[in-house]
Amino acid sequence: MAEGDGLISVDYEVFGKVQGVFFRKHTQAQGKKLGVVGWVQNTDYGTVQGQIQGPVFKVRQLQEWLQKKGSPKSHIEKVDFRNEKKINQLEHNDFCIVK
To answer: Where is the Acylphosphatase-like domain (predicted)?
Structure first.
């Protein structure tokens, strides 16, 4: 396996206008499109949080999407990524929206 091909897990929180703009739905769709797994949910204080797992290159693509694109009507102020770690196997089967 080449450098950078391993699996990683990273937690994220997105700040800005990210609730009420279909951010979770678009994040789920983008995650599935890229072939990563994890989850996304609204918080009680107006942010969106979740976890991404998959090959490093694909996780980095979703991280960039979360920082620069998001859903069409969202306005992203910042994204915090935390707890990045290498994993041996995926802990999720799909990319789901947590209610």
So the answer is: 9-99
DSSP-based three-state secondary structure for 69: coil
Whole-number pLDDT of residue 5: 67
Structure tokens at 74: 């969202």
Residues of the chain with pLDDT under 70: 1-5
Rounded Cα distance, 9 and 17, in Å = 25
24 part of the active site: yes
- Strand 95-97 and strand 37-42: the pairing is parallel
Q: What share of the chain is helix, strand, coil (3-state, %, to 5)?
A: 25, 40, 35
Euclidean distance between the first and the last CA atom of the chain, given in angstroms as a whole number: 37
Catalytic residue among 24, 60, 82, 83: 24
Q: What is the number of other CB atoms lying within 10 angstroms of the CB of residue 40? A: 24
